[in-house]
Amino acid sequence: MPRTVLACLTTLLLTAATWPPASAAAPAEPTVARKTLAAFASEQELTGLFKRWADEAQRRREEQQRARREQAASGALGQQVPPSPAPTAAPAAASVAKEAAAGKADSVTNVQHAGVDEGGIVKLHGDHLVILRRGRLFTVNIGGEDLRPVSAVDAFGSDVDPGGAWYDEMLIAGNTIVVIGYSYARGGTEIGVFDISREGQLTYRATYHLRSNDYYSSRNYASRLIGSKLIVYSPHVLSPWGDPWAAFPAMRRWRPGALPADFRRITPATRIYRTDEALDPFAGVALHSVSICDLAKPEMDCQSTAVLGPPGRVFYVSPNSVFVWTTAGRGGPQATAPLSAVFRIPLDGSAPSALKTLGSPIDQFSFHEDDSGMLNVLLRANGRGEGMWAAEVNYGDLALLRVPLASFSDGRDSAPVDAYRRLPKAAGQALQSRYIGPYLLYGAGTGWHAPQPTTQSQVYAVRYAQGDVYELPLPHSVDRLEALGSNGLVVGSDGKDLHLTSLRLARLPVTADRYTRKDAAQGETRSHGFFYKAESEFDGLLGLPIVGGSEPGTRQLQAESAALLFLRNRGLSLSELGTLKARPSAGDRNDGCRASCVDWYGNSRPLFVRGRVFALMGYEIVEGKVDAKRIVETRRVNFAPAMLQVTR
């Protein structure tokens, strides 16, 4: 039956004018207990798979060499067969791509799920803001009425050469800070561990390496924190032309003179899972690893679970599970939906399960595990996952997949045809989506590019449980979707001006109000660049970094936003409170940056903490006082290392 269902789906993709086929109601939840994925039975079984890959690689190499000799003998030198590809070095290729592009009440991170914190550039610890910027950690005291820099340290140890490393994300558990980075020189994810005192003093403890390829995504974050459990996603591309074991998940504590032999494997064969689909290592196979580390322990100890699949991926963490969606790569707007699979890795340590699927999510916001035990996923026919900038450029028809979590099984079953609901296309490649209450919202914009003239656009509101779709016309693009409590907000540009449109998500969703900021664009594309502070069920404050109206999203890589815009929401009526503006300074130019000198994760954030309002812009924190009608700057501090001595 599973293979029959998969064959039917493939035939429909190749013959139907649209994807996916029209569907009936969502599939009924199975009444029988489901199986889980089977792991490799032993190291010998896994070794046997790699040997078959190596034997096939050798056969292909010899065949190509023989063909070249025959061509040379016949004088056909102008039609040589291309040589077999050398072993790929995914970290180096990713480095080139990366460098080529120029709920708690006092949470300061705009997260997808309350209680599932995401790695970011600013966090709160007691009376201190902790900020990760350009390869350093800083603390700023905001206790009482204070606003004062306290401490600064390198985001790496004194015995670590930061050359070729990027320090991207930070999380805090108790008095432990972890900095997640990637080192092209050392070939893996770095986890720097620091202690923070009640007084805000920072002390370096240790650095650990997780062997991996680059985790970077223009939208997603590689790390999550639930309680004291650090969750880190790491991809590992396996090449049949080289040694696949060299890419396996492993961990070591850094020391001067550390050697590759210091790595200790943290993923035995019996913790590696796959479906029954044949894997073609010559088309691309990756080991998608999820490592869980307990930060409550004095010495970091990580255990990893991995799944084998195609290299295209999207990583999503719900309060209960980690989901990894793998997709085979296919190029071009006319390509049909690639075969894919979604793996569910429970956070309680039990065995993973999976479903065979079609298409690909855009990013983590394509997923929603709801309270009724269903997984909802927005899919695009020719999505390629979210690695690097893949989420910014995708094509094809759209569908909503809605399946019971109980239908996940041993990887032999496919999501049934009627689990897919065809959705209207959104014009544009940079698709945005967000689940708010009973609705899935989606639309398209310009992403990291410069704003484009737009006079007509749409945001779609889908009742994901029932399948009802509503089209809401807009005079601007859809570059950001956010929640205003149980209602929604669309942020976008018409090519010159910035628009924020509130949505009333009642029984019939409608646009409620629109605020327009002349000659402006949003200054941050990252989800953490926006924050909404609810004051009541229907009222609140929101903040968003802004720049000039023609500025592209890539500006955030090199310069802080020009200002933080603050609006008041009164029953979905939006009114401007004003801006807190950045002050041009030489702090960035004179900071002696040694690592992470490009702001891949942005640099500007609105912060609402204990009734106070701050704007983080580069090395500045500006505080404002809000009354009924406006926000007024009261003071600012510059914590640039040129003005604050950096200690180790």
Strand line-up of the largest beta sheet: 1-10-11-15-16-14
Question: Tally the helices: what do you get?
Answer: 3
Radius of gyration: 25 Å
Helix content: under 10%
The amount of beta strand, in percent, is 35-45%
Largest sheet data: 6 strands, mixed
Average pLDDT confidence is 85
Topology:
Layout: H1 2-15, H2 43-73, H3 90-100, E1 117-118, E2 122-125, E3 128-133, E4 136-141, E5 148-154, E6 165-173, E7 176-183, E8 188-196, E9 202-211, E10 223-226, E11 229-238, E12 250-253, E13 264-265, E14 272-273, E15 285-294, E16 302-309, E17 312-317, E18 321-327, E19 339-346, E20 353-358, E21 367-369, E22 374-380, E23 398-404, E24 410-414, E25 420-423, E26 430-436, E27 439-445, E28 457-463, E29 469-474, E30 480-484, E31 487-493, E32 498-504, E33 510-517, E34 520-522, E35 531-534, E36 539-548, E37 563-570, E38 573-581, E39 604-609, E40 612-617, E41 620-626, E42 631-638
Parallel strand pairs: 14-16, 20-24
Antiparallel strand pairs: 1-10, 2-3, 3-4, 4-5, 6-7, 7-8, 8-9, 9-12, 10-11, 11-15, 12-13, 15-16, 17-18, 18-19, 19-20, 21-22, 22-23, 23-25, 26-27, 27-28, 28-29, 30-31, 31-32, 32-33, 34-36, 35-36, 36-37, 37-38, 39-40, 40-41, 41-42
Using brief descriptors, characterize the structure shown:
mainly beta, 42% strand, globular, 3 helices, 648 residues, single chain
What does this structure look like?
9% of the residues lie in helices and 42% in strands. It contains three helices and 42 strands. The chain has a six-stranded mixed sheet, with no helix packed on it. A six-stranded antiparallel sheet has the order 6-7-8-9-12-13, with no helix packed on it. The radius of gyration is 25 Å and the shape is globular. Mean pLDDT is 85; it is low at 1-18, 21-33, 76-105 and 331-335.
